[in-house]
Specification:
alpha+beta; 8 helices; five-stranded antiparallel sheet; 19% strand
């Protein structure tokens, strides 16, 4: 009887959001746990806004084009957004995929990792694009999987011509997208 009363009291407290549950170094209220993940549209806007005029992945692919280009299956995801530049000399790319479940999230991640390797191993790339491809990032956040290859490095880095520094500069550029994404999940 006491267990039933305690269970009922706990359920009422959780419903009211009065109880917190420790998770790692954070405490999450019942209300915060119900918070929905941001939409693809909201994530896309946040990333594009973070880059401002340097966001040149300005051509949206259809779902079918995204499936073909990135090796995705429409059965794996709830929604997809894939953007590439209109000018083929640039390889900036942003792919946002909202997976259906944990199993499909793994498949999406694998497909985007495979795409990343193709970009890195493509000997037909312009030299700076090859370095940008090496710095590209497959990133997972919640039910989302991202492929990020965005931004421009400082001219001084390019002129210095030190490949490791240029790759690191492109990684820092990709971090702009990661930070924008993370801010929506905070």
């Amino acid at each position: 009887m006491k267990k039933q009363m305690l269970s009922a009291a706990l359920a009422v407290a959780l419903a009211a959001g009065a109880v917190t549950a420790p998770v790692g170094n954070h405490e999450i209220t019942a209300e915060a746990a119900k918070k929905k993940a941001p939409t693809i549209k909201k994530i896309h806007k946040a990333v594009a806004d973070a880059y401002g005029e340097n966001f040149v992945a300005n051509y949206a692919l259809t779902a079918e084009e995204a499936n073909e280009r990135f090796g995705l299956s429409s059965g794996w995801y709830k929604a997809v957004s894939a953007d590439i530049p209109m000018i083929s000399t640039n390889i900036d790319t942003l792919v946002i995929v909202r997976s259906k479940n944990a199993k499909s999230k793994k498949k999406i991640k694998k497909a985007l990792k495979n795409y990343q390797q193709v970009q890195i191993n493509d000997t037909m790339q312009y030299p700076n694009n090859l370095l940008k491809a090496q710095a590209s990032k497959v990133y997972v956040k919640g039910e989302y999987v991202f492929f990020i290859m965005l931004g421009f490095i400082d001219n001084a880095l390019e002129e210095a011509g030190v490949e490791e520094d240029m790759i690191e500069g492109y990684r820092e550029q990709n971090q702009i997208a990661v930070d924008a994404i993370d801010s929506l999940f905070a």
